[in-house]
Amino acid sequence: MAERGAATSELLVIFGITGDLARKMTFRALYRLERRNLLDCPILGVASDDISVEDLVDRAGEAIRKTGEPFDDAVFDRLAKRLSYLHGDVNDAALYDQIAQRTGTDRQCLYYLEMPPSLFAPIVENLGRAGLLTRARVAVEKPFGHDLTSARELNARLRAVLREEQILRVDHFLGKEPVADVEGLRFANTTLAELWDRRSIAEIHITMAENFGVEDRGSFYDSVGALRDVVQNHLLQVLALIAMEPPVGPGDDDLNDKKAEVFRAMPPADPAHCVRGRYRGYADVPGVADGSQTETFVALRLQIENWRWSGVPIFLRAGKALPQRVTEVRLFTHRVPALAFMPQRERAPRNQIVLRIDPDPGMRLQLVAQDDGVWRDVHLDSSFTHDLGEPIQPYERLLHAAMVGDRRLFAREDSIEETWRIVAPLLEHPGVVHTYEPGSWGPDAAQALVRGHRSWQDPWLPEGGPTQ
Ligand code: BG6
Questions:
Q1: Residue 113 forms beta bridges with which residues?
Q2: Tell me: the pLDDT tens digits for 15-40?
Q3: 3-state class (DSSP) for residue 225
Q4: Is the pTM of this model over 0.90?
Q5: Can you tell me which family this protein belongs to (predicted)?
Q6: Which of 205, 234, 379, 453 is catalytic?
Q7: Which of 44, 132, 217, 445 lies in disulfide reach of 127, CB 3.0 to 4.6 Å?
């Protein structure tokens, strides 16, 4: 929900509209918004390529078709009519004068920076100098810094020209189902809300597995690694939503306050409880530096020292070249006591609650039943696509939220700084990198990390087996 007074954008300006993200995500998101009649402003694309607006429209059409999105010419024509294009060098003040001539300086603009992070601050400073920020919002892609110091520096430069409520830090996991609405799921269901703490929950596992390697992103990825690429941002943002207290109201800061409280209650990660791995063959990926020690897999243990979660171990794992593409959150309950009336002496296994984020968002409740004197798992499953309809795509949701000024789906600065603080010891003392075979669940040491706890479970896959 937009905060009172947040105005809908009158113009969307996309820096980097000829780049990869636009091709893979943004055009499709805009097209889907157009189809749902949720787009009602012009779009100005800005990039360095010297192309015409007709070329841009062709590229947009091709990009949308390539995503497999059903293509409706009438919808696309409406979108195409909104597009205009300006090429130039983002470090050149003249570009901003041209933008100002096209847009005027008093429009409620959304500037979306799909640009390398090193350009975030220079672009925003240039927009400021040209007087373009008075009524604007600025959305920046991840990563926001590469450690706590650089995140603070970047923030200081942005805040020199923007108010916090003008900055939207994009983390596309916050636009996914069921992440985007998890507070509803958690707190509107007594069944879940009542068992969502240390009294009932013994452990939390979060898995983000990808069944492909680094492919053509070698030089980007090699300077980042799994911890910075997906844990500091995506997985910790998800964890905060899973662990937070209920927001006290509908405002943007009500939700972000609760997320920030979770992070503030988390001690820095302990390198002794972190395992890094790298799939065999990574060193040969083009762009990977000789002697690189970058990890493509990371598993770690975290804790939240607050009333709700104290003593509940939290295990996260993320990796490339694993057996499946699947992201899930899994909560294990405590075991029930031995029950004298049961024929078998063995205590019943734990229940598990699984929230699947990708692919096919859904929820599973894993219970036990007796089958001829033997405990058997039984599952209550909901595929949200099946039960609720096709989910809104993450970038579609986030672009719309950015345009209407709904900041709940964006990461606030304090959370970002806290997450860098939490992972800092792991960046400072990275430890050895174990080799694992592509198609395995990472190095053996990742199993050792959970020794004495719940072992890593095979993720819950959509019916019909693994999907993309
Ligand atoms: C990105 C990472 O932020 O998220 C990629 O840079 C990763 O390495 C991607 O593959 C995963 O996103 P999704 O939406 O495909 O699960």
A1: 15, 140
A2: 999 999 999 999 999 999 999 999 99
A3: helix
A4: yes
A5: Belongs to the glucose-6-phosphate dehydrogenase family.
A6: 234
A7: 132
